[in-house]
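Re: the pair you flagged

First of the two:
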Amino acid sequence: MHAPGIWGILVVAVVVILLFGRGKISGMMGEVASGIKAFQKGMKDDDKPVERVTTTAAAPVGEPEKKDV
């Protein structure tokens, strides 16, 4: 098989523009760009060290312990 020439690419581009319209294509490209930005932000967040939060168990609420005097 051979690679498509300039005329083949132009015909495909015209058909795509006719099917989707200019506004739809620009909207889709905007959504793709925002998805890429969100992915890159998520990858940057993975590089940061994770802060571990530890909690200590609270003493059970009830009667106080009896002490021998």
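Second of the two:
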Amino acid sequence: MDVVLQRVVGAAMAGSSLYEVVLETSEEFKQWLEKEVGMTATELGGEPYFRQTDIVMNPTSGEPALPAGIQYQSPQEIFGDANGGSLFIKGDGESMAAHYSDVNQGELADAWLMSALAMVARYGKAASIFTGHGDDGVVVQLHKLNKDPRMFGTWDSPFEQSVTYALPTKDGKLCYTYSDEAGELWPAMAEKAVAAAYHGTAGNEKNGYDVLLEGNAAMGMAMLLGGTPFTVKLNKVTDAGNQSQLLFRAWKKLLRQGCTVIVYFENDANGLEKSRPYTVFSLQKIDGALGPTFLVLFRSPRGKQAQDCAAGTGGVWNGKWSDCDTDGWAANSVAKAQCDWNGRKDDGTFWMAFEDIVANLGDRYTVFIPSDPELRKINLTDHTSLGLAAASSKLEGQLNASFAQLMANNGLGENVNKFATFAIDALQQVGQVASAANQIQGQAESVKEQAEDTAAHAQSIVGKIPGAADMLGKCVVM
């Protein structure tokens, strides 16, 4: 490798020693990346680096270790329900049961994993990472890192981690990640599976919830879905407006290809929290009389507990274009319609203009490229579409029915597990149709944008040639 950017001890940059992350780049990596996403370093806005790490992921048995004062309890004990809750529950306003709004950070400082889980749901894949469930618990598919340097930090070795239904509690209540729907278990079960398999460095046998204090959101997505995380170190620019447009184009092209963009702000400002992972959920270009406005829809890993419009840091932006800026939205009906803004939402999402992003961003952003070709077909610029499982609510309901029956009747475990496998396969087939539609939509938008860019470029050239505009006008008249 021809360049080493830096060595970071602890992916959360907290000065810990569980594992090392080395960001590296090479001409081979940049060529691979250009082939994979069709973007050069210039188009990305800076130098791309892949992540080399000595993290170990292995399936384990037994319960993940808990910090002092935390204890395991069954879902029946936690929720006072004989059936023990449900794996998935479709809440009011959710397009499907396994929705990103289900992922809300609890007392554990594992924001990186919360962001990763929310994006798994954003892709519509939350149901399908659960590959089975039996009398005692569930099975979650995770991925190991391929440490061959020619693989550029890709996580591509799937394995299954089994965990029991017992979940961490404090004073009888769930204390770590929780759903906004009481009794919905999938976020907590997925968090537990990662706590069981995530070991830090080679030779370190420690796993458990304390280990989840360190991580990186793009890396977490690779653990859950399989794929390649990388970092872009931004070029220094003097014109913030130009950088806003450059980043908008870069992020839009990445999102259209099913890649996730994650940012870490360097400032605690207007509700933002420094060094926490914010995932990009959508992009919108709003045309106006004074020129275009570029907006981004972010989600905070705090989710439901993010404090909208509160003084100080609450997890979500409360400046211009935020949910707090009701007067600004009311004055711009085009933006309101285009962004589908209908008032404040208690789900950790917020809109933010690129000039404010650039002012608070720092010197880098991170990206996750899924290995699954079906995920690469999803156009993530559309915040009204939720990936492969947008049409899967009925199947998720069937999975829930099998889960509830299993909890009540242990003897049906084998048959229910077979049905769950069948239902998940069917869900994936439905998803293929949805992803094809998303791909066509993305291609149409890309052609439209290219045409607009070509017209603008031609107009700028004409403007630089004396008399060209008049000549062009005469040609049109003739």
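The two ends are 60 Å apart (CA to CA).

-B.
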